[in-house]
Amino acid sequence: MLAIKKLFRNLFQSAGAAAVVLFVGGCTPPGPGALLEGARLLEKGKYSEAVEQLKIATELMPGNPRAWNHLGLAYHAAGQPPLAVLAYQRALVLDRSNVVNVIHYNLGCLHLEQNNLPAAIDELRSFTMLTNSASAWIKLGTAQLRARSPDAEKSFNAALKLRPRDPEAWNGLGLWQVQRGRAREAAQMFNTAALSSPGYGPALLNLAVVSQQQPATRPAALQKYRDYLALQPRPQNWEAVNAAARQLELELAPPPHAAVTNMAGGLAPLKTNPVAVAVVLPPVTVTNPPPRVAVVTAAPPVAVVSPPVTTVVLTNRLIARPSTNDRVAVVTPPPKTNPLVVISPIPARTNKSGFFTRLNPFSEKARPETNPTRPPVRVAAPGATNTFVPAPRPVVVPRYTYLSPAKPAAGNRAEAERAYQRAWQAQQSGRALESLVAFRAATLADPGWFEAQYGLGLTAYQAGDWPQALSADELALALNPVSTDARANFALALKQAGYPRDAANELEKILQASPNDARAHLTLGNLCAQQLGQPKLAREHYLKVLELDPRHAQSGPIRYWLAANP
What we know:
The chain has helices at residues 4-15, 17-24, 30-43, 47-60, 65-77, 81-94, 102-113, 117-131, 134-146, 151-162, 167-179, 183-196, 201-211, 218-229, 238-252, 355-359, 413-428, 432-445, 450-463, 466-479, 484-496, 500-513, 518-530, 535-548, 555-564, and strands at residues 280-281, 285-286, 295-296, 303-304, 311-312, 344-345. With 566 residues, it is mostly helical. Among the domains are: 165-253, Serine Threonine Protein Phosphatase 5, Tetratricopeptide repeat, CATH 1.25.40; 271-281 and 308-345 and 356-364 and 375-381 and 406-566, Alpha Horseshoe (Serine Threonine Protein Phosphatase 5, Tetratricopeptide repeat). It is globular. The longest helix is centred in the last third of the chain and has 16 residues, at 413-428. The strands form three sheets. A two-stranded antiparallel sheet has the order 1-6. A two-stranded antiparallel ribbon has the order 2-5. Strands 3-4 form a two-stranded antiparallel ribbon. A hairpin with a 6-residue loop joins strand 3 and strand 4 (303-304).
């Protein structure tokens, strides 16, 4: 990844000494002069001023794809993604011969920042076909990884053929292995990444998280946490990781006087009406300190630098257990910049506050059980000022087609409970597929049983089966429309399935019933900031979170985002 100053230095070198002399002497024609001035302002980080100069360049040279690409870059760096998309797309329309093929990369990176994964994959794949760039293969692999596509492995391997010691590619392969439940292989790849680039933070932290999952490697996990905490400059999530390391240290060497306060991990399954519980807690979000500006090309040769992309630790399979904690944990996607949290299901063995609980923006103290005969359920986790008439490919935010099912009739409850018990035991043993099949059997036996529909939606969510999760969640809501947990699960599934607007609508319904639900405010704030392009609304929700809980676990990252987005 090139530094911004180096990138622009190469840019001016490529323009040639004669062009610079002409520009300095005032002999450059107005259009090219505005383009060079815009590039100079971009190098200095004066993005708003660069936008004005590059708008002049596009007005004077409306058919020049390089000018439009630079304008897109300036909007991109200035935090105006909708205008950047329009400018990049205009550049693509004009660049019929792919002379400025890096536009595909720029636009793909912007789509990736916005979590528009299909569009990002399309543009980044086009760029790799034109250039075979290692950086583009890594970005393509990152987009495919987030989309849970098996092609991610091929993309990361293609990058390693070009740069065999690239730590980001090895780290991506490790995440791909974790996504498939292969913790040992993932640890090997994270270790290779760390050895390829000593001090590479993402690999150190990912290796610590993976190692913590196995008792035999927990001491090694603690050392990796310490290595990560020793990095300079301090990572943005230093406080959260430090708390995690201290918690693990206490677990490995508890003080002699420590009293046992919670034995929930040793409870046996309930004999009647057991309820599967999935604890959705966040892995650590790790990023490289990225430049704000993605790619610049004004004249051959093309100079490329990657935009910020979040590297996410994906955790291993779900394990269920009985619980008396009837709270909602909501999964949030990685923000465009200054990520707050990315959450995936992970196993939870006790109810005591631990590493992942501290990193979960929706963790709250358990409220007292109100129905002791039925165990409660936890959930899975400005318009453009320049004028032109482009012929862009529109950025379409898909909408969910609601099934709106009628309330299912009751069935054979005894048979359903037997299947439900099998599903619970399979979850506890980590047999996700078997658990999913058993939950389906429970819903077939008694379609009118809320817990069975809820459990099926939860397990399908963990398995990445979004259609099944959405269908089951809608049936659960048909049976119990006031269930906050079921609606939160439905919102999570909508978000993961690529329906952010509908997910936001469901969260708004939660807030209508519970205006002071900090968890829903934080999730809705993340959606507005990351996928819906509504930073003003995001700010309102983040401020509400701080108002409700000034010491919220995510108060630090929230304040950082607020400061960066005034």
